[in-house]
């Protein structure tokens, strides 16, 4: 069983390197990695070391924006990465009440592109609706870092990132923050709708079917276990 599990892990990591970093690992390299990982695991098991974490469980809840602010949660994902990509988001007031939402699809793309598109469309919607004190949350730390930092000139999403940075530079109070995915599940719900919809963009003046229960849970500060 250990041989199988470590083998799956090596294959998964090699695939991620190929897809995300354009880095190819030869079969021989993967075998050596697998063998080394097996030896490390066996060494730990044989030593009788107790590696069970005693950290207390972490509970996450959606948090309301400060008085006078509205909150935008956005998300995006691709099935397969790259694959069929979608995005979505929603705007709520300081009591957690629904103000607006959106969802859309962009065809074949990566997770990062989908999340960037979700952020851009959410910012544009906020501006068009006239909100000028905004708290923005995304569960992708990579996206947050891309927006805060200056991407390399050859970055494939440079134009899109610059557009997002220009949106933040407008005359409004608008800040971007990272949130754990358990506190962003309503945006994830809308992003999943984006995959199945026919229009490239949909505006939701009221919550779509199935989302109201999640919204009520957020308003009541229902917590979710961090996994």
Automatic annotation (TrEMBL):
It comes from Erythroxylum novogranatense. InterPro entries: RNase_H-like, RNase_H-like_dom_plant, RNaseH-like_sf, RNaseH_domain, RNaseH_sf. This is RNase H type-1 domain-containing protein. Residues 66-196 form the RNase H type-1 domain. The keyword Signal applies. Residues 1-18 form the signal peptide. It holds the Pfam family RVT_3. Keywords: Signal. One of its GO terms (molecular function) is RNA-DNA hybrid ribonuclease activity. PROSITE patterns: RNASE_H_1.
């Amino acid at each position: 069983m250990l041989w199988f599990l470590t083998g799956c892990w090596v294959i998964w990591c090699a695939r991620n390197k190929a897809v995300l970093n354009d880095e190819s690992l030869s079969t021989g390299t993967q075998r050596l990695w697998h063998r080394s990982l097996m030896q490390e695991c066996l060494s730990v098991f044989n030593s009788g070391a107790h590696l069970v974490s005693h950290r207390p469980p972490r509970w996450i809840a959606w948090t309301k924006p400060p008085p006078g602010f509205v909150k935008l949660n956005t998300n995006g994902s691709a099935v397969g990465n790259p694959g069929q990509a979608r995005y979505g988001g929603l705007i709520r007031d300081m009591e957690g009440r629904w103000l607006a939402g959106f969802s859309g699809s962009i065809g074949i793309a990566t997770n990062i592109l989908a999340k960037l598109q979700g952020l851009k469309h959410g910012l544009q919607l906020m501006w068009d609706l006239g909100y000028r004190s905004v708290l923005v949350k995304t569960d992708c730390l990579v996206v947050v870092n891309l927006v805060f930092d200056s991407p390399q000139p050859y970055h494939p999403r440079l134009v899109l990132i610059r557009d997002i940075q220009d949106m933040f530079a407008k005359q409004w109070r608008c800040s971007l923050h990272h949130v754990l995915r358990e506190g962003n599940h309503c945006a994830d719900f809308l992003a999943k709708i984006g995959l199945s919809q026919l229009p490239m963009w949909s505006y939701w003046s009221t919550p779509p079917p199935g989302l109201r229960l999640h919204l009520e849970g957020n308003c009541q500060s229902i917590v979710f276990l961090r996994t």
